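Record type: monomer structure entry
Structure origin: computed from sequence
Chain ID: A
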Amino acid sequence: MAAQLPATSLSYKIAVLVFLENSAGELLLILRNKAPNLGSWSPIGGKLEMGLGESPFECAARETMEETGHAISPADLHLFCMIAEKAYEGAGHWLMFLFRCRNPIDTLPPTIDEGRFGFFSRSAIETLPIPETDRTALWPIWDQYRDRFVALRADCAPGQALHIEVEQITPGEGAR
């Protein structure tokens, strides 16, 4: 049964997250100085420049350059997840595109206004302060689908358990 829509209308935002790895397979995360996720480690990302008609791939390449100085092209990106988050933190809806960058970054970027960076193994990430939705949903999505594609929807309404539903899964590269 589909979840009921909230009685009040919430704004919708479209954003990307970019998962960058170094040659050792460690993931680059930023310790956020700003909301959302203030004080938490998370992948880099940002909102689409919708007024310019920016695509999610263009946004991911732009955000990677702006936040890390690492120049990539849309061809360096693998879209592994699209997730529609309903009522995230009760403040709005998000359509998130999650990308894995195929072009490794081996130099730790300098600190920026948004926060400072660190490389972490996947197991070390579990010990970091990360948003609870990242712990319960985002990182398991990375673990399971980073080489494939999955479309998900999540009901993130406050006061209830996070509910995620798979809408579509596509096999990984090379799969038939």
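Annotation 1: The chain is about 20% helix and 35% strand.
Annotation 2: The helical segments are 56-68, 122-125, 132-145.
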